[in-house]
Amino acid sequence: MRILISLYRLSIGGSHINAIEIGSLIKQRGHEVIVYSPDGPLRDRVADLGLEYVPGGPTWRPRPSVAGVRRLNAVVRERQIDLVHAYEWLPSFEAAYGPHLSMGTPVLSTVYAVEVPPYVPRDLPMIVGYTNELDIERRRGRRQVYTVVCPVDTEANAPVADRSPARERFGLRDDDLAAVIVSRLSVDLKREGLLSAVRAVGLVDPALKLRLLIVGDGVCREELQGEADAMNARLGREAVTLTGPMVDPRDAYVAADIVLGMGTSAQKGMAFAKPVVIQGERGYWETVTPAGMPQYLHHNFYGLGDGTDGAPRLAAIIAELAGDRGRWPELGEFGRKTALAIFSNEAAADRVLEICEDVAARPEGSGRRAAGVLRAGGVFAGIRAVDLGRRAGTRLRHPMPVRG
User: Fold this and answer.
1) What is the topology classification, in CATH, of domain 164-342?
2) Which residues are paired to 280 by β-bridges?
3) What would the 3-class secondary structure string for the chain be?
4) pLDDT at 368
5) Which residue among 100, 162, 261, 377 is least enclosed by CB atoms within 10 Å?
6) Can you tell me the distance from the alpha carbon of 328 to that of 381, in angstroms, rounded to the nearest whole number?
7) What integer pLDDT is reported at residue 370 of this predicted model?
């Protein structure tokens, strides 16, 4: 089978890394896999994994376009693609309007965002990462929907006996308590928690010598750097450090005493056998424990709090973990065992390939394809109206923020 993995960008993010790692394993199982995306920092990773790369346009775009649909059509036609595996809503939308509608090419959509936007036609088969969204999509009428927990390379992401080189890389002393966040520095989902984490540093007992490392890049970086500088000035030491982006952030996980994060980042912390605190929104922070695992899987290692400030809650969690370090090996062992049993790339690749084969074997008729895709046409028209409104200086809003 010839599979085209369509991504909206090759940025350093969980779903993009997952896509190319799973694609590499599917190639090892005897299939031809091509990565189609605008260029980005993960281009070298695509090459390292032995996957062919086809440019998906000159730059990343925040919304679909007719030109994007035409480019995708041309690649699918020229390369005789059997199935397009589109990750997140924008590639799924363009694949639906492009090769799926015009050529009947099967399309599998994977959406690992916190919610599936209405832009994705309900007739497209879809993979979601957690059971909450599976239930929602079934209630919306999506007939083919599957769940595959966001995978993690549990061989590359594994405990390291000697942490000294990693900690030295980040300027951590032996007695520093290192809390690490590996994240996109974006507004959607991330900004609130990142800012509350910086504030939490000022609420923790100075005797703990807490160091917060924030690894990543994005539109909020300047704001976060300002908050970090202010906190460091207030405490009279470098307590918060923004490292910038890392294509391979494994040293950050190795250096950590405690990992803070959501989704795949939290899962990687577990794979490294670290105590993990889940980051959410509306003040949500929660330590990963065996008792909460069904809830974490249901909500993709994310949660919503009561709307109060999350900084005091996170500070209390860090203080509790710091005061009971004898519990760390137990939490770490649980996390590692869970990662091996549930999150491994090998298990995910087997399941994704099974789904791809199922989708490719059940192509839809032209009438059903057209009906399903055109139901989303009003949204496409709305997006065009937003573009035209912005050019005209009106204050129309995008119907839904882009996630992922």
Assistant:
1) Rossmann fold (3.40.50)
2) none
3) CEEEEECCCCCCCHHHHHHHHHHHHHHHCCCEEEEEECCCCCHHHHHHCCCEEEECCCCCCCCCCHHHHHHHHHHHHHHCCCEEEEECHHHHHHHHHHHHHHHCCCEEEEECCCCCCCCCCCCCCEEECCHHHHHHHHHCCCCCEEECCCCECCCCCCCCCCCHHHHHHCCCCCCCEEEEEECCCCCCCCHHHHHHHHHHHCCCCHHHCEEEEEECCCCCHHHHHHHHHHHHHHHCCCCEEEEECCCCCHHHHHHCCEEEECHHHHHHHHHCCCCEEEECECCCEEECCHHHHHHHHHCCCCCECCCCCHHHHHHHHHHHHHHCHHHHHHHHHHHHHHHHHHHEHHHHHHHHHHHHHHHHCCCCCHHHHHHHHHCCHHHHHHHHHHHHHHHHCCCCCCCCCCCC
4) 55
5) 162
6) 53
7) 56
- pLDDT at res. 372: 54
Give the separation between CA 384 and CA 389, rounded to whole angstroms.
8
The average pLDDT across 177-196 equals: 95
Distance CA 376, CA 93 (A): 9
Average pLDDT over residues 80-96: 94
Q: Encoding tokens for residue 22?
A: 């799973």
pLDDT of residue 363: 74
Q: Would you place residue 371 in the very low, low, confident or very high pLDDT band (cuts 50, 70, 90)?
A: low
**For the chain, domain boundaries:** 2-151+345-392, 164-342
Average pLDDT over residues 42-67: 87
Q: 162, exposed or middle or buried, with CB in 10 Å at 0-12, 13-18, 19+?
A: exposed
pLDDT at residue number 373 = 58
What would the mean pLDDT of 303-309 be, rounded to a whole number? 94
Strands 126-128 and 240-244 come out as unpaired
List Cα–Cα distances, 56 to 65, 76, 79, 94, 127, in angstroms: 12, 12, 14, 12, 22
Q: Is 325 exposed, middle or buried (0-12, 13-18, 19+ CB in 10 A)?
A: exposed
Q: Which residues contact 197 (CB under 8 A, 6 or more apart)?
A: 179, 181, 212, 214, 260, 279, 311, 314
- Find out whether 95 and 3 touch, Cβ atoms under 8 Å: no
CATH number of 2-151+345-392: 3.40.50.2000
Per-residue confidence (pLDDT) for residue 297, from 0 to 100:
86
